[in-house]
Amino acid sequence: EKDIQGPANGTLKDIHTFAKENTDHANNFHTQPILQREAKTWQETLYKFYFRTNRFYKQINYYGWRFAELHVFKLVLLIMVLTSTLKVNNKSLFF
């Protein structure tokens, strides 16, 4: 975990740097043998399931925020265009 101070105004470059710093452990050499060897106890099976699920959750979370950051302005622009178009159409109906 990393303690982040200050307001949440990081740029996309800062977000990528933070993500790389905090996901290096997921690709380390000590985690791959754990995932590749056969589980002998139910605790190891549960740990492997948790580890894979957690990695999948982090990937979804990271790419979800990345997609949102890159494309939210397009959604806002579309809403603005639709709103202005509907207002123009409504005004033309009454004249």
UniProtKB/TrEMBL annotation:
Protein keywords: Membrane, Transmembrane, Transmembrane helix
Transmembrane parts of this sequence: 67-86
Transmembrane helix recorded as keyword: yes
Superkingdom as given in the UniProt entry: Eukaryota
Native species: Rotaria sordida
Designated name of the protein: Uncharacterized protein
